Amino acid sequence: MKLLHKVLLVASIALPCAYGFTQAPELSADEPIAYTADDGILIATGNAVYEDENTRVEADKILYNRIEDQIDASGNVRVTRDGMRLLTEHLVYDADTKRVTAGKFRAGYPPLFLEGDSFEGTLEEIDFSKVTIYFREPVENSPKLEVRTGKWISDESVSGSGLRLNAIGGLKIPLPGFDYAFGSPSADLDARIGFRNSLGAYVRTRWLYPFSQSLSIGGNLDVFSRRGVLVGPAMEWKKPDESLRVFVDTGWIHDHDSDERGVDLIGQRIEQSRGFANFGVDANEEDRIQFKARGNYISDSELYRDFRRDQYFDQFQPDHFLDFTMQEGNLLFNAFARRQINNFYGMVERLPELNVEWLPSQLAQSGIYMQAAGGLTRYRKVDIANLDIPILFPDGPLGLMNSQDPFGNDLIEQIESPYHNRMDGSLTLTRPFVGPLGCSIVLRAGGRWTQYRRSETDTLPSMTEDRWVGELGVDFSRAFSRTYDVDRPDWNMSKLRHVSRIKVQYRWHPGGGDMSEVIPDYDDFVYIARRPVLDLADIDHTDGLREWNVARIGWENTIMAAGSNSEYRDYLSFNLYQDIMFSAEENENELDALYSELDYKPFPWLDLQWRQKLSTEEKETEAAYLRAILHSADLWSLTLQAEYLRGGIEQYELVGNYRLSENLGLIGYWHYDAILDTITRQQYGISRRFGNVWQMETYVAFNNENEREDDFSIGMRVLWLSF
Fold first, then answer.
1. Distance CA 614, CA 608 (A)
2. Assigned domain for 54 exists
3. Total number of domains in the chain
4. 33-88, pLDDT tens digit by residue?
5. Which domain holds residue 76?
C-alpha cells in the first residue's frame, strides 16, 4: 500500500520549479499523508520516506513544510547520502540549503564511524562537538578517539582537537589535533617486543602521527636491556596531490656492550655512539618532471644487522643519489649524482652525470628514425683495499664473511681512484620495413664517441684519450598467430590466442679497442640472468665498450586468454635467445649463452617468473632467478624465490601464510643455502587481528651460520593497520 500513498510533491502540491531540484523530491508513508492548508505542512506517518536528488531520509514521522522547504523527522531517523549513513532520533533538514540539525547521533563514512550528542551543518560540511570517532567498525577492542570539537567535510577529510585515544585496556592517551584525509594512511604504529641473546629483552617502536593532511611526525624508541636505548625523530610531509613527498627517519644509541659490538666490515672496532639517518625526496609534475633523492647514513656497517634486521636486507649496502629527469616532447634531460657517505663500502661515484637524449623520431616523411644522446660525467671509484669480491651480500649464507674479525688482523682501508671526466655522444639511424606475412626488417647504423680525461695525482700524470665505436645492424622478424576456441568456463577461458615470433638480430660495433690500461672498466660486474643490451646507444657500461660482433637468434611466444567477455589477458610468455659471438676472444665462447624467460599468469592465484642464463658450450647455468606466488584469496599464500649465481650464490626462500579464521593465521619463513647445505633461518609464528585495526604477530626464529645473530630468538610485533 506504500506506493498507493506516495505523493509526488511537484505533481499533487504543485511546488514551483524554483526549488531547483534536478529530480523532484518525493514523500511517502504507510499511512495516508495528511496536509494542513493553513501552514502548508505535509505529515507522513509510518515508515515515512523523504527523498530528493541525492538524500534519503527515513523516519517514523516526517513533517514537510513546503513553504520553507524544510522537513522535521522524528523517531528512528536514518539518513543516507553519497555513501554516508546517519542515525538519530530527531533531525531538522532544510532541503534548500542542505543544512541539518540533529540530536544524539551515530554516523558512518567508511573507514570512520562517529557518535555524539549533537551536530549542526550541511551534509557537505558538519561541525560537531563531544563525539567519539572509531576507525573501522566499532567493535570490541577497537581504538577510538574522544574529540572535543571537529569538522567533517564529505568526501574529503575529518579533523578534530581536544583528543583522547582510548587504547587497549581502557588506557586514555591525550593527543594533539589531527586532520585526516579520506583514503590516505592513518596513524602508523609498529611495536615489537622479544628477546635475542645479543640484545637481551627488547621493545621496538616506530610511529607516525598525522598532524595534518600533509604532515606526519613521530619517531623511533627502542629499549634493549643489554645494549641501551635507541631514539630518534621521524617525519613525512607530502602535498595533498602527492606531487611532492619528503621523509626522514633517524635513530641513535649509546651501545654499552663492547663485546657484542665487535668490528665492522673493514675490521675497525665499532664505537659506542651508533646511529642512522635515512632521508628522501620524491617529486613529479604531470610525468614531465621527476625528481628522486635518497640518503642513508649509518655509523657502522653492522648497525642495521644488529638493531634493524628487517631493514638490513634491503639496505645492507646503502645507496645515496640525486636523480632529476625532465621531458619536453622528444627531448629527455637527466641529471644524476651519487657520492659515498659511508666509509666502509665501495661505490662508483657520479659527481655528477648529465645526459641529454633525443628520443627516436622520424626525419620528415622519410621513414628513417633518428636517436641521439650526449653526456658529461665526472666520476671516480671508491673501493675497499684487499676486499677481492665484486659485490657484498647481506648475510653469511649469501657470501659475505660474518666472523667477528672477517679479515684477520689487517686493517682494511677505503681507497679512491683518480677523478675521470668523460664526454660521450651517440647518433643512431634506423629504417624499418614492414613486409607481407608478418615479416619485418629494421636496418641500423650509428656511432658513439667518447673522450676521457684523467685528473693528475701524486703518482699518475693527467691523460686524455678519445674512442670511436661504430654500429651496423639488422633485425629480421617473422610473426605467426593463431586463435583457438576453448570451452573452460571454470577457468574463465573461452579463447586462446598464440603469437609466435622468430627474430634474428645482428650487431657489429667496430672500433673501441682495449682501454683497460688507461680507463678501468667500472661497470664490469653484472649480477643478472637477463640478456645483454645489443644497441650501442642503450649500452650503459660505457667504460667497457669494445669491438663487438654478435648475432642473436630469438624465439618469442605470447599466449593470451579471453574470458566470456572476450577481453584478452596475459596468460603465458616464453622467450628463448641464443647469442653467437663472432668477436669472441681466447677466454670467451663463440656460442656465448642461451637466455630463457618465462612469465606465467594463468589464474589470479598463480604468478610465475623465471630467468636463466645458460652457458651453451659448457652446458652449465651461469645465473638463474625464480619467483612463484600462489594464493587462495585471503585464505593462504605461498611465495618461493630462488637465486643462483655460479660460484657465488645458490639460495631458496619460502614464505607461507594460512588463515585459520577471520582473525587468526599462521605464518612461516624458511631460507635454505645450498652451498652451506643448511637452513640458515627458519621462523614460525601466529598472527591475530583484534579491534579491526590491530594485528599481532608472535614468532620464534632459528638461525644458522650467522655469527651476529642468535641461534634462537623470540618476538612479538603489534601493527596498526593503516587504510
1. 19
2. yes
3. 1
4. 888 877 778 888 888 998 877 788 899 998 988 878 888 999 999 888 776 788 89
5. 3-103
